[in-house]
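Section handout 9: paired folding examples.
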Amino acid sequence: MLAAMAPTSFRLDTLAVRLLAQLEAHRRTWRADPERASLELTKIAEEQVGAMVAEQADLGPGPRYAAAVAERLHHTFMPRYERLALEQNALEEAGWKSWRGGDPIGRIVSGLVMLLLAVALTRLVRNPAVVVAYMGVVLVPLGPEIRALWHGWQYRRALQSIVDDLGNIQEELDRIDEVDLDSELARDSLSDTREASEADEVVHRPRPPQGERTP
């Protein structure tokens, strides 16, 4: 089968990881300009996919498989990556949606508010559970970092999901590719046989007697 002949470096999930590394290296460059980011990321993807296909020209299983790989990277990988990348850029640009973008003043004010709340709870509620409020004095000012870790983890998980899906598509390509090729060869063979049979029938068809019309 054609896909099984592809080297490991030219399989969909492997190429997706390489493409991700290139795109992520440039993603933050246009963080404040989503429209330009979309255009530039698409341009980089087209250049990288073209370069990877050319790089594997001598090692890959042929132009048909290379075209199938490029098509899936362009139409399956890129739309999902672009949406995630733009969302991540927007979160980073907004300071992870923290109050005042997580600037020093916002951190100090939020810490003081939590401290006052903790002291008030200590006086109103005689319960060791109020220690949680004092934990907030430390955690709330660190909210931007906590949000960054959380959203970063979700982002990496979503990217890995894309790579995993491309791995599944690669497995389908491994199974289907040979069937498609055999089907095409069978159709071509049947067409050639039918044309040869029709030509032979014309050649060996008896000529009608002189003066009679051919039905």
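Moving on to protein 2 of 2.
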Amino acid sequence: MRTILLIFAFLLFEHALHAQQPIDAMPDRTRKRVEILIEQLASRNNTPPILGNARRGEDQTIRFPESYDKSRQVLVYNAIQTLLAEDDAAIDLLLEHEEDPRYSYSVNSYVDYNVTVGEACRTIAEAMLIGFENELHVVSRSQFGLFPPRETSPADKSAMDLATYWRKNKSRGAAKVQIEAIDAMLEYFKNADAQREPPWHPDARPLPAAEFNRRRDLNIKTLIAMRQLISETGKRYRTNTIEGAHYCIFGLPWSARKFNK
């Protein structure tokens, strides 16, 4: 009986020891796994050409050449999904690779574009922190960019990017950062007025007031539920996608063009 109690006490000690380790403390095998997944973000396909230039008022589309093997993109897609499920410490590793220029995947939106490995790493890191934004109904473009908060210094009123904010606040953990982001969005939606808010896109029409209010109320319920889940578990909310309402990954065996047809 005494032996069992000693073993139990040792396990409690080990658990407490690991729980108190800084977020940077990552076991070698975990680091290797994340590094392998990041390497898998590099597509074996060449970067597909972009036709047209949206800045010149042209349709900007990607048409995959015959040499583009869509089956090769499955490994990239699986790496994205697996990285989204990693623990908080993976965020730092992802941000270490944000300058990697290699081609990763392509996005279909109202303007098609290609994504580098570095951009993919940054997108995944941001999704691990505020990816819940993509699960909300879009009512206005004002609902985006609410977090991180703007600098309070009079000398620098520009918005701090999420990567920089994470580096300054990662000691608090992703769960607390998420709660702060959710609170910022809750404040916005509780005060959002259909008569004042601009549409989600400059060329789009504003939503009718009834539809605006319906979506806003659903978003408030969703955010409150997410906040409660994070508060009760002490763990970040884990999204399962980097895609949004108006953009998606394509060039996969099962994907199809949804926008800019």
